[in-house]
Specification:
The protein has 5 helices and 9 strands; from the N terminus they run H-E-E-H-E-E-H-H-E-E-E-H-E-E. With 221 residues, it is of the alpha/beta class. The chain has one domain: Rossmann fold. Helix 4 crosses helix 5.
């Protein structure tokens, strides 16, 4: 998890908004002693929370934008068992932001590759469309989150469904089900309205909200 200094500044296409952060504080409460991890930290907006925060981010250009984020792997964080009070993160949604080709025209692109200015790193979920590979990756990520969470720690996932070939892809429900399968208890789902893009395929039919899924780590007595 070595930091790489003086990387070029690159914007990120999917950051926590102030609305997200306000809702997260409502969930976690006002204790500034909480240790919170974001394993998909991007440019580090998680660090705007009033807690002790750590971020992991695979892409050096994004990790370098906050001193409390280091280059690291969400599937193998390197942290000890039961290190954190909460894991709070916004993984990739498995939508067309994962498109991984170089545009040959001047049309608007809202993809991880476009914002980075290069293909995402090997092992990144940023190139995974909704499907088996995406599901396998994120199940491993939530298992690692469970490992580093303390007893009764909270997992908060920001996620969103999308439309593909005219059909809603129920990404949110899958995350709920897999987290319950591996030992989390769903405490609630909070809807965050989003405006969405005004261009691109299916833009008139986009899902108008994201969801904050709130789980508790269940530990057998």
């Amino acid at each position: 998890m070595k930091r790489l200094a003086q990387m070029p500044v690159k914007p990120h296409p999917a950051k926590f908004t102030n609305t997200h952060l306000e809702e997260i504080v409502k969930i976690l409460g006002g204790s500034r002693e909480l240790n919170v991890l974001d394993p998909f930290a991007g440019v580090g907006t998680i660090h705007n929370l009033p807690y002790f925060t750590r971020g992991l981010e695979l892409e050096p250009e994004w990790a370098d934008q906050h001193h409390a984020t280091v280059v690291g792997d969400a599937l193998n964080t390197g942290f000890d068992l039961s290190s954190f009070d909460a894991v709070v993160t916004s993984p990739c949604f498995g939508n067309r932001m994962a498109d991984n080709f170089e545009a040959k025209d001047d049309s608007k692109r809202h993809t991880y590759r476009h914002y980075l200015g290069r293909p995402p790193s090997e092992g990144s979920a940023a190139t995974m469309q909704w499907g088996d590979e995406y599901r396998e990756f994120h199940k491993k990520a939530w298992l690692e989150a469970r490992r580093v969470l303390k007893r009764n720690g909270k997992l908060i996932i920001n996620i969103k469904d999308h439309i593909r070939a005219g059909e809603i892809q129920h990404v949110t429900q899958w995350h709920i089900e897999v987290c319950q399968e591996i030992g989390f208890r769903l405490l609630g789902e909070i809807t965050i309205p989003v405006s969405g893009l005004t261009h691109g395929e299916n833009y008139e039919k986009r899902i108008p909200h994201e969801s904050l899924l709130v789980f508790n780590k269940e530990v057998a007595d």
